[in-house]
Each structure stands twice: as C-alpha cells, then as structure tokens.
Write a sequence for this structure.
C-alpha cells in the first residue's frame, strides 16, 4: 500500500476495523511514519470523544462507596508497586 | 487535560499515576471527576440503570487494578478510561443477549443536550463540540459513527443494519470521523494557547 492508501485506512483502523492482514501492514507503516502516527492518534481521540455525546448521568452516592470499598477489598487490593 | 477549576488540581495523568501506586484517594478523585460522564456512556450502551451501575463499578475496579497499563503515547487518560467503559459495556450488552434487542436505536438517538452535568469545564466544552459536529454532519455519517461507538457494530454490520452498501458506509464513517477530528484538533490547539480558567 502507498502512503496515501494507508492514510485513507487510518480512520477505520482508529475504530478497530481493518481486517487483520491490512491492519498489520498499516501498523507497520504507522510505526515508522510520524505523520500517520499523529493522524491515527487524533482519529482515535476523535472516535473516543463520541463518548461525550452521551448525556452525563449522576450515579447514586452508594455506588461511590461500593467502588471504593471494592477497591480496598482484599481480593482486589493491589500491592502499591507492580513489577510491570 | 487541564482543570480550569483550580491550578492545584492534579491532571488526569497524575491521578492515574498515583492510582498505579495504590493511592485510593486518587481513585476517589478520578471517580468524582468522571463517574457521571462514564455512567452516561455505559447507560447509553446497556440501556438498563442497574446494569449500567454495575458496569461502572467494574470500570473503576479495572482502573484501580490496571492504571499502570495506561500509556500516554496511545492517547489521553480520558480516551483510556472511556474505552474501558465502552468495551465493558459492550461486553455486558453481548452477555445479556441484549445487542439485538436494542438494535436500531443508537444511530437514531437524538444528540444529547446536557453539557452542564459534566463538572469538568474543558470536558464539557469538548462535549459541546462533539454534539455540535454530530448535529451538523449528514445523518448517514452520524448514524454510522454512533452505531460503531454505542453498539460496537463493525462496518459490515452497519451496512447490514442500514441496508447501505459497505463502501458507502465506510465512506460515511470516515468523513464523519475526519470532521470530528478536525474540530477537536482545532479546539486542542486553541486550548494550548489559552490560560486555564480563561472565559470561554
């Protein structure tokens, strides 16, 4: 694929859309092409921003307590540092 | 993301870094900043308040456990967070077998008119632009983007759903996304030279 053909496919890649064979080729190009990498990042951000078209909904106060309690529960508590 | 509400507020990236170190007060802060926005997103996908609240809890637990995986090179913290919310919600939708039942709605949904419930000023401004762009672009482009985002449909599935040729659907999606990208990139550039808290 040429640079232009790849550029045209970036929008669909940003949606997670391109068939695997294509995606590999595009990703390989993107890894070495600053302008395509920047473009892909912007397109991913734009797709992600669609989240903001949903009307916010205030969660009930108990949910906050539940989330924080679950985070500190022994089975979900994490050590302060991880080895990754 | 800047927080015009106060110079001392930690950035989203600061909060994620602290969460990765096990700081639960930062998890609380991140929750307070984004729970309403994310519950709105999840609810729009799963269409059930109780399921949505359950998914939201999973989202913040995953954030608590995986904050170290956040990679700034792959996008802003909100993108990371919202993509966790979206994929958890879509998983829930599929596991409930609801995906077909709710079919048809996401793409037709009127664009929400509720910028102000977002307590983050920069985010609210961005939301306004997203809603504005979605309102301005042709219906077919809007429908393709919303079906992809809120129902997780592939281009092929959108083509089947809407009865349009696949190539046409791909073009609609691409044009709609490019328009959204252009407007948001312009906003970011403008933000970059703005002082925090400057009047909008």
């Amino acid at each position: 694929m040429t640079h232009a053909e790849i550029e045209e496919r970036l929008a669909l890649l940003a949606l997670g859309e391109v068939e695997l064979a294509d995606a590999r080729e595009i990703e390989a190009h993107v890894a070495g092409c600053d302008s395509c990498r920047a473009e892909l990042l912007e397109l991913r951000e734009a797709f992600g921003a669609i989240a903001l078209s949903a009307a916010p909904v205030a969660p009930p106060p108990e949910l906050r307590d539940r989330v924080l309690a679950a985070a500190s529960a022994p089975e979900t508590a994490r050590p302060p540092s991880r080895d990754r | 993301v800047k927080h015009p509400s106060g110079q001392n507020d930690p950035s989203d990236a600061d909060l994620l870094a602290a969460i990765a170190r096990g700081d639960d007060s930062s998890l609380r802060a991140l929750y307070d900043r984004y729970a309403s926005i994310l519950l709105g997103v999840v609810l729009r996908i799963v269409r059930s308040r109780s399921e949505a609240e359950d998914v939201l809890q999973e989202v913040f637990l995953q954030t608590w456990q995986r904050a170290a995986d956040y990679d700034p090179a792959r996008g802003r913290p909100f993108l990371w967070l919202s993509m966790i919310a979206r994929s958890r919600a879509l998983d829930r939708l599929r596991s409930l077998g609801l995906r077909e039942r709710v079919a048809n709605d996401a793409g037709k949904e009127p664009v929400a008119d509720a910028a102000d419930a977002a307590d983050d000023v920069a985010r609210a401004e961005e939301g306004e632009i997203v809603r504005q762009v979605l309102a301005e672009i042709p219906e077919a482009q809007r429908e393709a983007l919303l079906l992809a985002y809120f129902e997780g449909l592939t281009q092929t599935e959108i083509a089947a759903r809407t009865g349009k040729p696949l190539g046409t659907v791909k073009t609609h999606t691409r044009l709609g996304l490019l328009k959204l990208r252009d407007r948001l990139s312009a906003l970011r550039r403008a933000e970059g030279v703005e002082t925090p808290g400057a009047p909008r």
Q: What stands out?
A: The mean pLDDT of chain A is 86. The first helix of chain A runs from residue 3 to 14. DSSP finds four helices and no strands in chain A. Chain A touches chain B at residues 8, 11-12, 14-15, 17, 41-60, 63-64, 66-68, 70-72, 76, 78-82, 84 (CB under 8 Å).
